[in-house]
Amino acid sequence: MREDLRTARTHDPAARSSFEVGLLYSGVHAVWGHRLSHALWRRGFKLPARLNSQIVRFLTGIEIHPGAQLGRRFFIDHGMGVVIGETAVVGDDVLIYHGVTLGGKSLAKGKRHPTIGDGVTIGAGAKILGPITIGPRSAVGANAVVTKDAPSDSLLVGVPAKVRKIVTDPVTPEYFI
Questions:
Q1: 3 to 37, 59, 66: CA distances (angstroms)
Q2: Which H helix or E strand runs over 175?
Q3: Whose CA, among 25, 97, 155, 166, lies 20 to 30 Å from 144?
Q4: Digitized pLDDT (tens) for each residue of the chain, 177 residues in all
């Protein structure tokens, strides 16, 4: 929990204290609720896991299926409207904004949601659909619709999203195309 509070304070310059984050940040509450739901899910308590996830959804506006796997230091900023599907796998140090969907494209059994690599940032309203992989340290632009794999260090923008290479300025952490 402390790590989650630190992560929120690192990613949100408006966060004034850990107390404020723990009390008021719906993204943090959703992650905490998911951790409980996921633990129940893995132990075979499917109904209580789903019930808890729906209560968290009602309270936060963020829907994370209990089967989804979330990495450490995962932060949802603003959160409302985020949907993360059952077979989604999210790496460590991932940041997502409101309205993001990590969804499926089929009704088939098995892996049908995306895998998000470590250190990925996903902009507001982005949709990442299907059993695809987004490579580590990539960025998905706001409102992009991603339906194909992307290599590490990619910038994905547009509808449908196209892959661009990220170039990092050695002086600032900003991304340039």
A1: 19, 22, 21
A2: strand 175-176
A3: 25
A4: 888 888 888 888 888 888 888 888 899 999 999 999 999 999 999 999 999 999 999 999 999 999 999 999 999 998 899 999 999 999 999 999 999 999 999 888 999 999 999 999 999 999 999 999 999 999 999 999 999 999 999 999 999 999 986 656 555 555 444
Query: pTM score, two decimals?
Result: 0.86
Distance CA 177, CA 175 (A): 7
Sketch out the chain's domains with CATH numbers. Answer: 1-165 (2.160.10.10)
How far is residue 16 from each of residues 7, 21, 76, 110, measured CA to CA in Å? 13, 8, 17, 42
